[in-house]
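Journal club side-thread
Mid-discussion, someone asked how the predicted structure for our own chain would compare to the paper's figures. Pasting it here so we can look after the session.
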Amino acid sequence: MAKEIRFKVKDYSVSGEVFDLVENMEYGFLETIPQPNPDKLSDYYKSEDYISHTNSKRNLFEKVYHLVRRISVNQKLSLITKYSSSTKILLDVGCGTGDFLQTAKLNNWKVFGIEPNQEARTIANIKTDNAVFNVEKLLQFENESFDVITLWHVLEHLPNLEEQILILNKLLKPQGTLIIAVPNHKSYDAIYYNAFWAAYDVPRHLWHFNKTAISKLFSKVSMEVVKTIPMYFDAFYVSMLSEKYKNGKLNFIKGFWIGLKSNLKSLRSKEVSSLIYVLKKQ
């Protein structure tokens, strides 16, 4: 399989190590090389700054993140409701601290979650009456169990990508819906910040997708993208963090401007900082 090195990216969050981004010429996504051994991968998540695993609100940046997350949870609920059936059984893979699952449960969904981080899983289980499990549980669910499976900024974290896609396909009911949100390395903010783009987040992000890559990957298991939805908030968050990586400090005004510019350009290009993909079995 042909691959081409694009550039090097530093891990600004935890290790300070530098990784190559290599383009997979068959699918069009970028791969983080080298990828950490699975037994070492969790070490790269050990940071107080990894706020998706905590409820901390220590500063303005984190407070804004959690405000946006509350808004986004309601938008996610509205989306899955469009694809619900009478049974309303939901699996959220990489559910973090469980806010989305809690909201779905309060709206009459039967919920299950997968979360590898123990601290986040403990918080999520308090919110969901112990409906969240470690990753081994994925192989214990019966095939065709779920009406909706969601991965909100999770697919890019999963090792053994093609194997994981096969598992998700098996767990989904024949008329079920798979919903995936991932960063888009073809967006304006990604191109502008280049190696400083925060959404590369190496080595926690093992894969870096675009629209072509998602379509090609899931067509291998006879799944089709039926809708794409822009995530406009992400451009602001990612650009502000990218400014910190590039210049050593947060610059809310510059980050906001680049995020806004990226969103405005996406109105024509359709290349938003992050995209939600709605997929169905063919």
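Post-session note: The first helix runs from residue 38 to 41.
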